[in-house]
Amino acid sequence: MLLGLRVAVVLPAYNAMKTLERTVAEIPRDLVDDIILTDDASPDETVALARRLGLHTLVHSANRGYGGNQKTCYRAALARGADIVVMLHPDYQYSPKLLAAMASMVASGHYDAVFASRILGRGALAGGMPLYKYIANRLLTAFENIMLGRKLSEYHTGYRAWSRQLLERLPLEACSDDFVFDNQMIAQAVHFGFELGEISCPTRYFAEASSINFRRSVTYGLGVLRTSVSYRLSQWGWIKPAIFEDRPELRLAPDPA
After folding, report:
1. Domain holding 51: CATH number?
2. Where in the sequence is the domain holding 130, given as residue range(s)?
3. Is this structure's pTM higher than 0.90?
4. Residue 255: inside a domain, yes or no?
């Protein structure tokens, strides 16, 4: 608990058996009230390991995609009373030791969302990010900053802290179940006027860490461009995408599974 606020960490997992234990070992248990892992139909032993580690474990009977996995994570965190929810990839690419700093920024009331940036400082390339991914990250981020009118250092981190108020307000059910979910969520946060902050974070790229392949990266990049353009056109009143509509039925609903 932090300043009287209940803190939950959610781990959207797929084939995370090799890195999960290292990730969980560095989560500060004196601060975190709840750790929730949602397994997206992994063929490995992620679920068994998560249960041995004492995590609250949810299992999809069929793969729902990265975005669909996060939706389940956030539904569960809200249902279990979280005031601050930190989404952390369980692949040990990001340092769980920064969780206290990120949650504190949300708890302060100054920020509704905080992102752990690999780009601030020398974290990305020093940690082994492939050069083509670094360049793509910088180009996409520059375009998004122009379209969204912000000055974030990156939009593509897998380590984010959210306030309960934000998660309850955003129309997340309208977002994709694929990787572009992450980007759509940030665009929604900007659209609905939430305050965004960043913190520098080292990163690690190694054989066991998860990473999407080149083809999926291209698909993701195109989705990012589409989201950014849709945001700008919606601000001009030219289109009205569902992801920017303020409709209660598009907010997170109880998971039927």
Report:
1. 3.90.550.10
2. 7-250
3. yes
4. no
